[in-house]
Design brief:
Largest sheet: 6 strands, mixed
Number of domains: 2
CATH topology of the largest domain: Beta Polymerase, domain 2
Oligomer: single chain
Radius of gyration: 32 Å
Structural class: alpha/beta
CATH class of the largest domain: Alpha Beta
Shape: elongated
Length: 365
């Protein structure tokens, strides 16, 4: 121990119990976090971090020196093994708590939701604390007979609550009496800002989730003209395989196989060409599908390609749109620059496509 402490015989006896139980505590520290992580993975819960530690001999001795008479034996202490789950959002704290409740036996009498103790004008940032045991139904081992008897603590808080706790600790703040009023006011303002930020992050996530659900419903219903074009809506639209029919028609030219690829890069192209809604893309397919087919036939008709990319349909749709609307070489170069990055080869490819398209039927209609 780094600091000399004076323990009475009772405290020394508890410290001896601690030493004898260290192998059991180490086994618990190995088992419990792994079990929690497995359950998070199964439940789809993403957390910032999962920390754990066994109280050091020096820390325990210091605690026993101050209030060792409070404990009958080592099993009265509830935080020798401690875990902390740090979440990104407020509502995820309750999800984590639900996991802990399902996995372990909760000592409700000694557990505390400090969030409910946070008065409107109080200072500090608080978290949820559960005191737990490993139930025999989850795990037991004759080599560690006390493994189901030892209690451990699980703290659950958000990233911002954790940041506050660390700042609070670094300032050495313990009570309002110890902090001058001007500093206390600033600390209270900071606590309020963090609390507001925590709430707003959760609110924004909830609103985005609702937005995605509404978008999926609109896409599924076919009301594409009401759906703005963005990353979420375009991703949902691609699940309907909107370019599939045109790709199949093109592939039939050579009896080719269609190679699946991500079409998300075309979102930037469509937006750059001025499309605002999914309805605009639906109209593009309807009005320029034949022109895109003519371009594709010219591209692959005299080849023996037996595999084409699923990106061929949206690519040629965009090329047809540019050519029919007077975008010319610069417009086609923009398409390839957006998809592949700027290069001289894009300039040459654009020039070649403009020349090839001159003799296609759709350009003379």
């Amino acid at each position: 121990m780094s600091k000399k402490v004076n323990l009475d015989p009772h405290g020394e006896a508890i410290l001896d119990q601690y030493h004898s139980l260290l192998p059991t505590l180490e086994k618990m520290e190995q088992f419990i976090p792994g079990k929690i992580r497995d359950f998070f993975d199964e439940s789809g819960i993403i957390v910032c971090s999962l920390e754990h530690r066994i109280k050091t001999e020096g820390s325990l001795a210091g605690k026993l020196e101050l209030k060792g008479s409070k404990y009958k034996d080592i099993f009265d202490l509830t935080d020798i093994l401690g875990l902390r789950v740090i979440t990104f959002y407020i509502d995820d704290v309750d999800k984590v708590a639900s996991v802990i409740e399902r996995l372990f036996e909760i000592d409700w009498e000694n557990s505390v939701d400090k969030r409910k103790l946070h008065e409107i004008d109080s200072f500090g940032y608080l978290s949820l604390h559960y005191i737990c045991r490993i139930p025999e139904s989850l795990y037991c081992d004759p080599e560690y007979p006390d493994i189901n008897k030892i209690r451990f603590e699980v703290q659950m808080r958000t990233v911002l609550q954790h940041a506050w706790a660390n700042m609070n600790h670094d300032t050495g703040y313990k009570s309002g009496v110890e902090v001058p009023k001007e500093y206390l006011r600033n600390l209270n303002r900071l606590a309020g800002m963090l609390e507001l930020a925590d709430e707003q992050f959760s609110r924004i996530r909830s609103e985005l989730t609702d937005y995605r659900r509404r978008v999926q419903a609109l896409v599924a219903s076919g009301n594409l003209g009401e759906v703005p074009l963005d990353g979420d809506t375009f991703r949902s639209y691609l699940e309907l395989n909107p370019f599939g029919r045109l790709n199949s028609k093109i592939a039939a030219v050579n009896q080719a196989e269609i190679q699946p690829v991500s079409l998300m890069p075309y979102l930037a192209v469509f937006k750059g060409l001025g499309f605002k809604t999914l309805g605009d893309i639906k109209t593009l397919i309807k009005e320029y599908g034949e022109a895109a087919y003519q371009i594709a036939c010219y591209q692959i008709g005299l080849t023996d390609l037996d595999i084409i990319s699923a990106s061929l349909a949206p690519q040629d749709l965009c090329i047809a749109f540019v050519l029919k609307n007077g975008g010319g070489k610069a417009g086609i170069k923009y398409i390839f620059d957006t998809l592949n990055g700027e290069s001289e080869s894009n300039d040459m490819l654009a020039e070649m496509l403009v020349e090839q398209a001159k003799d296609l039927p759709f350009m003379n209609q």
